[in-house]
User: Which sequence fits this backbone?
C-alpha cells in the first residue's frame, strides 16, 4: 500500500533530540494519511452511505450501560477512547464511531494485559486495511471471524504483502492479535454471535478506521 509505519519507536529517555522526535511524528502522520487515502479509494463506492436506521441508538444505549457498569469489555473500550475522563458524546453514532476507532487505535492505555496491549498495537496499517476492506467488500453476513479477517489481509489487492506470504508463525500471531477484538466488536455491533459482519459493522468499520488515521471517510475530496 506504499509507506509503512516507522520501523523504530520514537526516541526515549532524557536525551531526546527534538528534531528526531518531530521527524518521527511527521513520518507517522504521513503513513496515517496514506492509509486513509488507500482506504477511501478502495471503498469509494461506500462513501456517503447512510447508517442503518435505528441501529446506532440500540447499540449506543448498550454502550452507555456497559460503560456505566465498568464491565469487560466496556471497561477497556472506555479507557481506550478516553471516555473514563471525558463526558460521553450525546450523539449515538458519534459514541459508536469513537468506541470502535479506539479498538483500532487506542487514545490511551487500555488496561488490558500487557501482552494483549502489545499485540493489539502491533497490527500494522496495512493489516487493518486488508482485513476491513476485504470484510466490507464481502458485505453484511460475510464471515468476520479472526481467521477470516486475517485471510482478508492476504486477499486484499490494495495491500502489497499479506500474511499469506509470511510464516505460519506470523499468521498465528496476527490471528491472536485480531482475536482480542472478537468480544468488543460483538458488543459494539460490528459482528454477530456467529462472527459474521453486520450491516452496522459494514458501515462503521471503514469510518472508524479512517477516524483512527485522522481522516473522515465520507469527506468530499
Assistant:
Amino acid at each position: 500500500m506504499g509507506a509503512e509505519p516507522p520501523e523504530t519507536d520514537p526516541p526515549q529517555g532524557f536525551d531526546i533530540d527534538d528534531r528526531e522526535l518531530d521527524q518521527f511524528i511527521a513520518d507517522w502522520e504521513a503513513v496515517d494519511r496514506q492509509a486513509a487515502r488507500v482506504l477511501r479509494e478502495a471503498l469509494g463506492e461506500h462513501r456517503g452511505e447512510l447508517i442503518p436506521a435505528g441501529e446506532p441508538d440500540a447499540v449506543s444505549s448498550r454502550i452507555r450501560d456497559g460503560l456505566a457498569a465498568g464491565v469487560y469489555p466496556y471497561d477497556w473500550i472506555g479507557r481506550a477512547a478516553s471516555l473514563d475522563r471525558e463526558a460521553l458524546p450525546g450523539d449515538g453514532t458519534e459514541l459508536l464511531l469513537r468506541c470502535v476507532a479506539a479498538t483500532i487505535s487506542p487514545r490511551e492505555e487500555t488496561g488490558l494485559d500487557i501482552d494483549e496491549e502489545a499485540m493489539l498495537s502491533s497490527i500494522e496499517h496495512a493489516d487493518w486495511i486488508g482485513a476491513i476492506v476485504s470484510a466490507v467488500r464481502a458485505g453484511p453476513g460475510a464471515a468476520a471471524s479472526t481467521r477470516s479477517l486475517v485471510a482478508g489481509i492476504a486477499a486484499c489487492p490494495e495491500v502489497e504483502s499479506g500474511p499469506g506470504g509470511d510464516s505460519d508463525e506470523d499468521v498465528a500471531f496476527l490471528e491472536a492479535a485480531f482475536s482480542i477484538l472478537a468480544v468488543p466488536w460483538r458488543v459494539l455491533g460490528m459482528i454477530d454471535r456467529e462472527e459474521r459482519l453486520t450491516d452496522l459493522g459494514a458501515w462503521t468499520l471503514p469510518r472508524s478506521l479512517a477516524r483512527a488515521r485522522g481522516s473522515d471517510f465520507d469527506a468530499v475530496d
User: Anything to note?
Assistant: The chain has one domain: 55-212. The mean pLDDT is 87. Residues 18-42 form the longest helix (25 residues).
